[in-house]
Specification:
Layout: E1 4-9, E2 30-31, E3 35-36, H1 37-47, E4 52-56, H2 62-68, E5 82-86, H3 100-106, H4 108-113, E6 118-122, E7 126-127, H5 132-142, E8 146-152, E9 165-168, E10 174-178, E11 185-194, H6 195-207, H7 213-218, E12 227-231, E13 237-238, H8 242-251, H9 255-261, E14 279-280, E15 285-287, E16 290-291, E17 296-297, E18 300-302, E19 305-306, E20 311-312, E21 317-319, E22 322-323, E23 328-329, E24 334-336, E25 338-340, E26 345-346, E27 351-353, E28 360-362
Keywords: Glycogen biosynthesis, Nucleotidyltransferase, Transferase
Family: Belongs to the bacterial/plant glucose-1-phosphate adenylyltransferase family.
Protein name: Glucose-1-phosphate adenylyltransferase subunit GlgD
Length: about 375
C-alpha cells in the first residue's frame, strides 16, 4: 500500500502577520481574493489523492474552523478518512511530551488508525501547487528515511532570512540543514516519512526531553540518517510577515505567476459562497486587478486585489492595495499601498497611504 495521509502542523507557526492575525491564526488569513492560506495545503493534498488530513491547532482557530466546516469544499466530508481538526487535549497526567511533539504524542491514535503507509507533514505558510505523489516516487526510489521538499529561489527576500536552508549533494541527498543567509535552497516546511518511522522518532524525542519534531528528529540527525531532497520548481511564496504577504499577493497580478499557481489540472479549492456577479457602474475604471464576486465598483481601482462583496464608492481611488471581504470605501476616499482586513469602512474623502516596503494595515472591522 502506498497511501499517504496528511498532517498540517500549525503548532509551530507564529502569528506574525500583525493586524491580520489579531483574531485568527495565520492559516486562516485570506489570500488571493477568495482563498485562505490553508486552502493551498489542503488542495495540494486532495489533488495528490490524500483523503485523510489532520490539522494540529493550538490557538485562535475559531475562524479556521468556521472556514473549513466539515471539509465539504475539499470533498473531505466522508465516512472513511476525511478532515480532522485536532485542538489541544492535554489530559494525560503522565505525559512528559512538550512543544509540537505533544500534538504528535497525544494524537498518536489518529496516526495509528489512519489507513496509510506514509505521512506528509506540512505547515501553511508556503503557498504552492505541488503533487505529493511525485514526492513519494522519489522517496521510494531513493530509499530515504525522510524526504524534505525545498525551493531553489532565484532571489532571496527578507522572509527567507530565518527559513531553514538545505545543503544538497549531486545525488539529492541532504548533507546539512542550517540557516545560512546566502543559501538559496529554502526548506518549504514539508516532509514525507514512513508512518512506522515517525512513530519511533516521536518516542525517541520525547524520551530525550526534546520539543520539536523537525529540529530534534530530522535536522539534528541530518548527518546520520538518509534525508532525500525533493526540489519543487513551480510558483512559490513564503508568507511569514506582512511585507511578504503584500509582495506575494501583488505578484498574482502577473499572469504568469497567477496561472502557475492556479492550474486547471490541479485546482485550488475553497469554501463556496454564492455571491452575485460584480457590478461595474458607468464611470468606474478597473485596471490590472483581481476582483472577486459580489463587489460593487463605482470608482477607480488599479493594481489591487478585491475580495468578495467590496463596495467602492464614486470617485474613490484604490491603488496597490488589498481590500478584504465586505469592506466599504466611500466616495472620494483614496487608498494606496493599503491592506484592509474584513468588514472595514473608510469614510468619505479619507486618505490612507502606506509605503510599498511597508503597507498601511487596518485591522478587522475598523472604521476610519
Amino acid at each position: 500500500m502506498n497511501r499517504i495521509a496528511g498532517i498540517i502542523n500549525l503548532d509551530e507557526e507564529q502569528d506574525v502577520l500583525d493586524e491580520l492575525t489579531y483574531f485568527r491564526c495565520g492559516a486562516a488569513v485570506p489570500f488571493a481574493g477568495r482563498y485562505r492560506m490553508i486552502d493551498f495545503t489542503i488542495s495540494n493534498m486532495i489533488n495528490s489523492q490524500i483523503d485523510s488530513i489532520a490539522i494540529f491547532v493550538r490557538s485562535k482557530y475559531r475562524s479556521l474552523m468556521d472556514h473549513l466546516e466539515q471539509g465539504k469544499a475539499w470533498d473531505l466530508d466522508r465516512q472513511q478518512g476525511g478532515l480532522f481538526i485536532l485542538p489541544p487535549d492535554w489530559n494525560d497526567p503522565t505525559d512528559i511530551s512538550k512543544g509540537d511533539l505533544k500534538h504528535f504524542h497525544n494524537n498518536m491514535d489518529f496516526i495509528n488508525r489512519v489507513q496509510a503507509d506514509y505521512l506528509l507533514i506540512s505547515g501553511s505558510q508556503n503557498i504552492c501547487n505541488i503533487n505529493f505523489q511525485d514526492v513519494l516516487k522519489e522517496h521510494k526510489a531513493s530509499n530515504a528515511d525522510v524526504t524534505v521538499i525545498y525551493k531553489k529561489v532565484g532571489e532571496l527576500y527578507p522572509e527567507h532570512r530565518f527559513a531553514h536552508k538545505l545543503t544538497v549533494d549531486e545525488q539529492n541527498r541532504v548533507t546539512d540543514i542550517h540557516n545560512a543567509q546566502q543559501n538559496q535552497n529554502v526548506y518549504m516546511n514539508m516532509f514525507l516519512i514512513k508512518k512506522s518511522y515517525l512513530y519511533s522518532l516521536v518516542e525517541e524525542c520525547i524520551a530525550r526531553g526534546n520539543s520539536n519534531l523537525f529540529l530534534d528528529a530530522i535536522k539534528a540527525k541530518s548527518k546520520d540518517i538518509h534525508i532525500h531532497a525533493y526540489e519543487y520548481k513551480g510558483v512559490h511564496a513564503l508568507i511569514n510577515s506582512v511585507e511578504s504577504y503584500y509582495r506575494n499577493s501583488a505578484k498574482l497580478l502577473n499572469e504568469t505567476e497567477h496561472d502557475g499557481l492556479f492550474k486547471e489540472e490541479s485546482p485550488i479549492f475553497t469554501k463556496v459562497k454564492n455571491e452575485t456577479p460584480t457590478k461595474y457602474f458607468p464611470g468606474s475604471n478597473v485596471q490590472k486587478t483581481l476582483v472577486a464576486s459580489g463587489c460593487v465598483i463605482e470608482g477607480e481601482v488599479e493594481d489591487s486585489i478585491l475580495f468578495r462583496g467590496v463596495k467602492v464608492g464614486k470617485d474613490a481611488i484604490i491603488k496597490n492595495s488589498i481590500i478584504m471581504q465586505k469592506c466599504t470605501i466611500e466616495s472620494g476616499a483614496v487608498l494606496e499601498n493599503v491592506i484592509l482586513d474584513k468588514e472595514c469602512k473608510i469614510s468619505f474623502d479619507r486618505m490612507l497611504i502606506g509605503a510599498k516596503e511597508k503597507p498601511f494595515v487596518v485591522a478587522k472591522r475598523k472604521k476610519i
